[in-house]
Amino acid sequence: MESATVRRPPPLPGLIQLGLIGLLLVLAVLAWKLTDVQMAGMDAGPGTDPGSLGFFIGTWVVMMAAMMFPSIAPMVLMFSRIQAGRRERGDAVAGGLATLFVGGYLVSWAAAGLAAYLVFEAGKAVTGDVFSWENAGPYLAGGVIVAAALYQLTPLKDVCLRHCRSPLMFLLTHSKPGRIGAVRMGVEHGGFCVGCCWMLMAALFALGVMSLGWMAFIAALIAIEKLLPWKLVANRGIAVLLVMLGVAVATAPDHVPGLTVPGSAQATSSMDTMK
Q1: Phi and psi dihedrals of 71, rounded to 5?
Q2: How many Å apart are CA 139 and CA 84, to the nearest integer?
Q3: What is the Cα–Cα distance from 234 to 152, expressed in whole angstroms?
Q4: pLDDT tens readout for residues 1-53
């Protein structure tokens, strides 16, 4: 009976659905605005200094809320539908589970941000100026973006993307009771999302992690891949687009629209802002 009930969760009332979607979108808009304030004037292009660990993690979590909340709306709706079905059946269901689920999701992305920061700083310490923009920097940035394109075609990407695109499948296979269970489910779903998008985030570092424009570009790619019905077309189309972008960054960065070229007046001003 439990399985049959969960497999056919009742639809949420229209107002509740609109309320949940509206709340996620409002939070995303607020996160975009806060990110704009936090990162104002800091885009120094590929290899932008992310600042101190505390500043970066705080900014990163807000960035993830801005970029990901629209894409996880179907998952949050399905999660809420299942809880509503359990209430209708007479089960005791704690309040605030959807909030805890989203909080767990952000925990996974905070951990991913910490890992990215450590890798970035370790890479700079080990390689010195080998990958400075005057040396091999353009090729490194372009190579990372092309690597993100190739990752689009891997089995790991496909597995993670299936979990992100199929809320009911994920909830059926990862259901856990109570408040702690909601947090754990959020962390697990966030883990699949990280597995799906980590190379796109690496591409964001290669383009300028403090750029609101490139952040919006990557967020749009993620939304297209997770929400549009044509999974294969979206996945392969994004791969082709990233290959073209990576080659352009490596060979003709001055002609890439929206790219702040390190060493330019804009990049120098941004570095002064960071200092």
Answers
A1: -75, -25
A2: 52
A3: 10
A4: 334 344 556 666 666 777 777 888 888 889 888 888 888 778 777 888 888 89
